[in-house]
Design goal:
The chain has helices at residues 29-38, 56-67, 77-83, 104-109, 128-140, 158-163, 179-188, 227-232, 250-265, and strands at 24-27, 43-49, 72-75, 92-96, 118-123, 145-149, 173-176, 192-196, 203-204, 214-219, 235-238. The protein is of the alpha/beta class and 267 residues long. The protein is elongated, with a radius of gyration of 20 Å.
Length: 267
């Protein structure tokens, strides 16, 4: 196994960012259902297209909304085409308050029974599909929270919620001003920071000790992990590649790495 080293650093805290006055329109049957179930937002009304035939999925949505006291209204197809013309809305939309971000203390304080601490840090990932995929994989792997920078990064938008199949509604996501300072805080809390990078210096995940509390650092599309973030990582890891293309989609690569970390942690 690769030997790891520890750095001692000071860190800071981020305050919870409350919802703004504007609302959001979530769409898609599974994302809307998960938002209702999660109960983290203020839901105003559920819209179902009048052109859609009754189904078990729609009945479940209606029943779930009713159980939480959320009004259900039928809307003409034109309403969906006007507001969600380019979205795969499946005839369902949920008027709701903005996404509620967690604080770093929320993320660090969360514990998932029988699982070692595991956090994902996104270094300026900007594609909504990738962020949604990352949040879905993080939820599946039992990650306690995801950290993103406030600037030059994709936030948790309705498109991200759709791409995550609603997993974003259950995941703690913290926005931070200074990613490096937050990484140093995680080190102070006894996390090892592993940068996922397809470079010569990186060691294969399966040959690296990934037991104990881990913060997996994932770089942006194309650019990868930034220099300062790279230097703050304790070590770099990569996946074995046997084909002609030497890299994977960031969402796919992160999912594989997360489950390798869990495999080692559960030994």
């Amino acid at each position: 196994m690769t030997k790891r080293r520890r750095h001692d650093s000071a860190g800071g805290r981020q305050r919870r960012r409350g919802p703004g006055p504007q609302g959001e329109l979530l769409y898609g049957r599974q994302p809307v259902l998960e938002s209702l179930r999660a109960g983290r937002r203020q839901h105003r009304r559920l819209l179902i297209s009048s052109s859609k035939k009754s189904s078990n999925e729609l009945d479940q949505l209606r029943d779930t909304a009713a159980s939480f006291g959320v009004p259900v209204e039928e809307a003409k197809a034109e309403v969906f085409e006007g507001q969600l013309a380019d979205a795969n809305h499946q005839g369902v939309a949920l008027e709701t308050s903005p996404y509620v971000y967690a604080s770093i203390d929320d993320v660090l304080g969360k514990r998932i029974p029988s699982l070692e601490p595991l956090i994902v840090i996104l270094d300026h990932v900007q594609d909504p599909q990738n962020v949604g995929s990352l949040l879905r994989s993080s939820d599946g792997a039992g990650v306690q929270g995801v950290i993103i920078p406030k600037d030059r990064a994709c936030r948790v938008t309705p498109a991200v919620v759709r791409a995550s199949a609603g997993a974003a509604e259950h995941m703690l996501v913290a926005e931070v001003t200074n990613l490096v300072r937050t990484m140093k805080l995680l080190k102070d809390r006894e996390f090892w920071l592993a940068g996922l990078e397809a470079c010569e210096r990186a060691r294969l995940c399966r040959e690296t000790d990934l037991s104990g509390p881990i913060g997996l650092v994932v770089g942006s599309e194309g650019r990868g992990v930034g220099r300062l973030v790279h230097e703050t990582c304790d070590f770099l890891v990569k996946l074995p590649m046997h084909g002609k293309v030497n890299s994977l989609n960031v969402g796919v690569a992160t999912a594989i790495a997360l489950y390798e970390i869990r495999r080692q942690q559960e030994k």
